[in-house]
């Protein structure tokens, strides 16, 4: 019936689709709703750790596997757990922490999505992949595409460029384009949208790409594999909310196996004050996303420490999006300020022994507050999704170098004409040496 080990269901119409016959990385194929994967294999039987992320390949929409991946690692906390008085605190760590077997060389769970998205693409993919990023996604895709010779354009705000470091060499098929000046992540998304609309280029799709969501859902698969059960509570810092939607979908998939009871873990989603549009929208109680006006958003984003959480247009009200995930799980949201996040990050490092990415520290602060307020009971089981960490450790162990942009594009040049000229130039320069030209560019 279906040519692959999964099918895709449109959450609006219920139509079931074969991924083979869809445009690849079909961001728009479902119109106003998400597509969701259904895997032929219903049982949850993860493979051995040496398969990296692909130990969960039964539940990933991938055509192939790529070398160098690592799955999230889950362990039972002792020090932080006893400090908080929790008897069953499980930490799912995505980042670099050799003692725990975590070798994500770009430091965050964005590697889970990059190894999934790129493995969904066949090796002769006809377009150059275009990915917008605040920094962490750029690092992850730069690594995976460099190691596998996949043509990529990554678009990042100029002022976030310091986040674009790498451990290994950057392949010549990878181009870095920066949105100039005070451009933020949303400006990078606009610029990436223009590039992706050009012939020969295609969008990665963000939250709409099922490979991205199912890749991130492996954090929950890792936790449930270690815990043997679905946790009562799930804590994560959110920007786009993609990771949280993925966590909920992984939970639903586990319930469908029949082996995990009926529990839906409560999603506790945290943002970094004063930029917390998901929190503010959820407080408002309706499916309608409450946007923050552009100038106000720029001011607020400049104030937050966890820059990767600065997404102005998360998939909130869309069918199958953040609102539905929070509704279905009796979820909560919160806004954590910089000082609470810093303190939580320091506490975590002292007790657990690894430095945290600033966004991960936001989630730790939210957990601390939830225990204090009594929302989380001492004997309840908790999954703390530590979405990134070990940067300092990586700096000590490996040769980390800064990646320079190939072009810096000012906002007044964000037009199809201008951008198409820039891309033609950028790709023409190397035409003699690169392995494959973008058709039509
Ligand atoms: C991207 C990111 C987040 C937020 O994930 P979303 O899926 O965008 O909500 C949290 N922590 C880290 C370290 C990240 O890189």
Descriptive overview:
- Helix 2 (110-120) packs across helix 5, helix 5 packs across helix 7 (242-256) and helix 11 crosses helix 12.
- It is built from 14 helices and 18 strands.
- The protein has a domain at 73-107 and 212-394: Rossmann fold, CATH 3.40.50.1100.
- It is α/β, with parallel strands linked by helices and 441 residues long.
- It starts with 5 loop residues before the first strand and ends in a 13-residue tail after the last helix.
- The structure holds pyridoxal-5'-phosphate.
Overall geometric form: globular
Terminal-residue CA separation: 37 Å
Q: Give the helix proportion (percent range).
A: 25-40%
SSE class: alpha/beta
Cα gyration radius (Å):
20 Å
- Average pLDDT confidence is 93
| CATH fold description of the domain at 73-107 and 212-394 | Rossmann fold
Oligomeric state, counting identical vs distinct chains:
single chain
Q: Can you tell me the residue ranges where pLDDT is under 50 for at least 5 consecutive residues?
A: 432-441
Give the strand content: 15-25%
User: Helix segment count?
Assistant: 14
């Amino acid at each position: 019936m279906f040519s692959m080990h999964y099918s895709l269901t449109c959450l609006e119409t219920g139509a079931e689709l074969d991924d083979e016959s869809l445009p690849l990385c079909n961001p728009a194929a479902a119109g106003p709703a998400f597509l969701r994967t259904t895997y032929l294999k219903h049982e949850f039987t993860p493979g051995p750790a040496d398969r990296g992320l692909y130990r969960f390949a039964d539940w990933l929409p991938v055509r192939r596997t790529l070398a160098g991946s690592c799955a999230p690692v889950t362990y039972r906390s002792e020090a932080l757990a006893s400090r908080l008085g929790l008897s069953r605190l499980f930490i799912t760590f995505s980042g670099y922490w050799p003692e725990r077997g975590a070798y994500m060389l770009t430091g965050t769970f964005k590697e889970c999505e990059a190894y999934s998205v790129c493995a969904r693409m066949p090796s002769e993919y006809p377009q150059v992949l275009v990915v917008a990023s605040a920094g962490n996604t750029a690092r992850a895709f730069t690594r995976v595409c460099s190691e596998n010779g996949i043509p990529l354009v990554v678009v990042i705000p100029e002022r976030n460029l310091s986040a674009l470091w790498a451990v290994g060499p950057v392949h010549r098929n990878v181009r870095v384009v920066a949105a100039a000046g005070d451009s933020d992540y949303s400006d990078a998304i606009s610029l990436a949208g223009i590039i992706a609309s050009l012939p020969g280029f295609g969008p990665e799709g963000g939250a709409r790409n099922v490979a991205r969501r199912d890749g991130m859902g492996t954090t929950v698969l890792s936790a449930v594999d270690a815990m043997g059960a679905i946790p009562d509570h799930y804590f994560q810092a959110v920007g786009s909310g993609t990771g949280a939607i993925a966590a909920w979908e992984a939970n639903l998939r586990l319930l469908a196996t029949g082996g995990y009871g009926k529990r839906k873990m409560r999603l506790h989603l945290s943002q970094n004050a004063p930029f917390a549009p998901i929190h503010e929208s959820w407080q408002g109680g309706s499916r309608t996303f409450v946007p923050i006006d552009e100038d106000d958003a720029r001011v607020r984003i400049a104030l937050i420490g966890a820059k990767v959480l600065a997404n102005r247009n998360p998939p909130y009200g869309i069918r199958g999006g953040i609102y539905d995930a929070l509704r279905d799980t009796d979820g909560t949201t919160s806004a954590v300020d910089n000082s609470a996040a810093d303190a939580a990050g320091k506490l975590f490092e002292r007790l657990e022994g690894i430095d945290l990415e600033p966004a991960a520290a936001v989630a730790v602060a939210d957990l601390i507050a939830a225990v204090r307020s009594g929302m989380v009971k001492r004997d309840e089981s908790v999954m703390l999704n530590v979405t990134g960490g070990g940067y300092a450790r990586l700096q000590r162990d490996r040769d980390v170098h800064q990646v320079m942009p190939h072009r810096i594009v000012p906002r007044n040049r964000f037009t199809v004409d201008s951008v198409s000229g820039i891309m033609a130039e950028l790709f023409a320069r190397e035409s003699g040496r690169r392995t494959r030209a973008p058709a039509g560019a």
